[in-house]
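Justification of computing resources. Each target in the renewal requires a structure prediction run like the one illustrated here; the chain below, 270 residues long, is used simply to show the kind of job we budget for.
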Amino acid sequence: MTAPDVLLTDALLPDPREFSTWEEYADVLNAQLQFAESQKGAQTNTHEPIGLSGTYANLTNIHDIVKQLREDIEINVLTKTADFTFALTDAHDVVKTNSASQITGTIPLNSSVAFDVGTIIGLNRVTAGAFLVQATSGVTLNGIDGGMAFIEDQYKGAALIKIATDEWLLQGALSDVGVSTQPVDFVTTANVALASGGIANGTTHDGQTATTGQRVGVFAQTDASENGIYIVPASGAASRATDFDGDEDLYEGIMTFVKTGTEFAGSLWV
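Resulting structure tokens:
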């Protein structure tokens, strides 16, 4: 009977947690393999992995295998500063947002990005800007309603887990309500002439005197399409806040916090 190729089983593998460096782990693993090879009359530090696939399929040197294992096991923290689509490089790592503005992370179809079933992606929101997770059309996102959810608050997190070809599970500190990118300083309480200094520096709204550069919630316009978040100009026409000036910035349930005002200080507007 021909002796089988050497295969390091779980029983033979040392626990990497018992070593201070990966190099020490590789040395011990290599020594074990050499001993195993010696039992069938061969002395070598190479080994044809049995049953290995993917990035391990062509690795025959123990140190190379351990190096790849280290890269796969280590968790990286990946920072996102703008809207993005989840990529294979995000798999088994932590994705955090770092922006004062809202960031949306979109889960792609398997046909576009083929994550392995069982892939886990950690999610963390570390700044004031909202973090929205949504599934593209054709992808089912379980654990939430409507195929999208916000990470609940700053310094909160969640886990995104692929459970089938185009099916994911989202679990953690979630909310179907998002908070606007930044709070507003005050709100208007009546229709204003936005094009001709209606909220310009020095005007008064809800007991507050506007100062150039402040954020204003304009929520009482006769023409509702003019409502929104604006920046106080020194004079003349007001412009919408750049982080809240397009359809892509608006989602059902988004709320805006008001900092000051005789009537509306501390209020939340949906």
